Amino acid sequence: MVEFDDIRQLIGEILQLDDRTGTLNPDTPLLGSFPELDSVTVLALIHALEEQFGVQIADDEISAEIFETVGKLHEFVQDKVAAGA
Predict the structure, then answer these.
(1) CATH homologous superfamily of domain 4-83?
(2) Whole-number Å distance between alpha carbons of 71 and 73
(3) Helix axes 4-15, 70-83, angle to 10 degrees
(4) Can you count the helices (H) and strands (E) in the chain?
């Protein structure tokens, strides 16, 4: 089971949000809302998700929709873990 707080903490670490990490909720927009979230940090976040949750994220699975909100990213990772991918 992937907890929302695990995803929130990982995003906060990768983006170095510090105190702002606690303000992230499922409806918090990601893309376009955080200047820290650029192509390099997206790749770092994907790598961290793969490492922490033991999943593989294929290039063709990566889309702006997944990074639309924190909640959508959480759902995506939950689905990957549930599928054992």
Answers:
(1) ACP-like (1.10.1200.10)
(2) 5
(3) 120
(4) 3, 0
For residue 84, what pLDDT band results from cuts at 50, 70 and 90? Answer: confident
* pLDDT band with cut points at 50, 70 and 90 for residue 1: confident
Asked if 62 and 32 touch (Cβ cutoff 8 Å), the reply is: no
Tokens standing for residue 27: 């409806």
Tell me the per-residue pLDDT of 51-69, one tens digit each, with 9 for 90 and over. 999 999 999 999 999 999 9
Q: CB under 8 Å to 31, separation ≥6 — which residues? A: 37, 64, 67, 68
The answer to whether residues 2 and 78 touch, using CB atoms and an 8 Å cutoff, is yes
| Residue 43: how many other CB atoms lie within 10 Å | 12
Indicate whether 85 pLDDT > 80: no
pTM, two decimals, is 0.93
